[in-house]
Amino acid sequence: MKKLTTYRTVFFIALLTVMVSACKKLDLAPVNKFTDINFWTTTEKANSVLNTAYSQMFRSDYFFYNEGASDNAYNGRGDANGVASLAAGTYDPSLGRIKEEWQYHYSGIKTCNIFLENVDRVTSMDAALKVRMKAEAKFIRAYHYFQLATWFGDVPLFDKDISIADAKTIARTPKAQVIDFVLKELDDAAAALPVNTAYAAADRGRITKGAAIALKARVYLYDSRWQDIATTCEKLINDNSNGTYSLFPSYEGVFLPQNEYNSEVILDLEFVPLIKTYSQFFDFAPLAVGARLNALAPTQELVDSYLMANGKKITDAGSGYDENNPYVNRDPRMTNTVVYNLYKWKKPDGSTQTIYTKPGSDPGTDKLDEYAPGKVSSPTGYYIRKYYDPTSAVNFQSGLNLILIRYADVLLMYAEAKNELGQLDGGVWDKTIKALRSRAGFTDPAALTFSGAPQADLRTIVRNERRTELAMEGLRIFDIRRWKTAEVVLNGWSHGAKFGPASVDNGYIRADLRSFDKSKAYLWPVPRDERAVDPNLTQNPGW
Predict the structure, then answer these.
(1) Which of 29, 202, 352, 404 has the highest count of CB atoms within 10 angstroms of its CB?
(2) CA nearest 511: which of 76, 10, 60, 12?
């Protein structure tokens, strides 16, 4: 499908023409412009609209910077995507990110509605292909509504392309009704979509039956519908008729370009090298390997969440943790996600470069990555490794796909649901947590064997496993909101490495002071400008 991506943005101009053009007589189509009458004539034109919908499904900057709104990372330069304001609790309904998110998803919904209302005009299209394409559009529309409901709660719901006049008067629909709509759309999509192995190579990356089922599980997850989650996940874990998925053998390899479309990928955001790219890593990677500055840095809190190789937390008795040598004998996923002092950065030519982040540790003269307040280096002493593309072009321009849902997440959702149902036993553990840790590189039996701990302790274990497995993939903010733990982890200082004064927080850098008002912040406010245009849009409590 990557080759189809090049047509997506080109078509958008034509799509706008369709939306604003009109004929003086309904039965007479002008020959010098697109209209509803003369545009919907070929499968190729319909496909270009659908490809536009694909390109609007999600954004690379949201994917990465959403971590900065959580306790996993800190946006220390500017206010990228508003996440510094969101994390610090210093925002109101006028924040640009809030307005942008609202408009972004409704723009995507509009494209889907236009497609679904007009695709039947293409009478020459193969009937089975039309059914599949409608299902893809329904999935994308459901994805947008799910995102909107997750952030805002009640949002306007409509399944037709509405007029400007209607848009200025429409009211919000209760969240429960929006979620019901999303679930029904995903059921309809799953019934019509092919499994992942049924697509030809040219169509890799298109939405599948498995993607619809996995997204449905995530919708249930964010609504704490535990039995529904378990039942839905089992359709992918125990039933190959819905798609064939498995953990990729290498955790590091999941995110490398040579392994795109691997067995773990259920849904990804498509890019094309040198044509449709993103370059966020220009502001994420260490400066010593060519980055410009640091705009998103992992926190000490994230680093501390990685277990020791024996499966113990760093604070547990007998863990073997050495605060003066903190990065040895740790969960192998940490090295594939976070860059720390004396990290061996793998370069594209196969060689390595040592990254020096501790003040005074760099034997050279540039000292680019050493922590110092006010520098353009990392404000926490850590950098991001996960999703670095060794094949990226100048300024880290990458065409590497970003995975929105992977099979590891299905296993984690299943483990969490089974625990909340009181059913997390050795069999479920082996199928989920043990499988994930084994793939990551754990070998100590103590880290792999089911402990039979009480439900509350298993909840802590499963939640932490989710954090470390999925770190820097944009999901942590949604987890701490649904668990209602944001009020704890987003209140107080976020920290960096132990490079600060010993008299403050035991020497750990104070990176950013966060604040989270539990009385209102679990829902974003409806954007101020949207309410100014539409007086029927009510506001969320506290805003």
Answers:
(1) 404
(2) 76
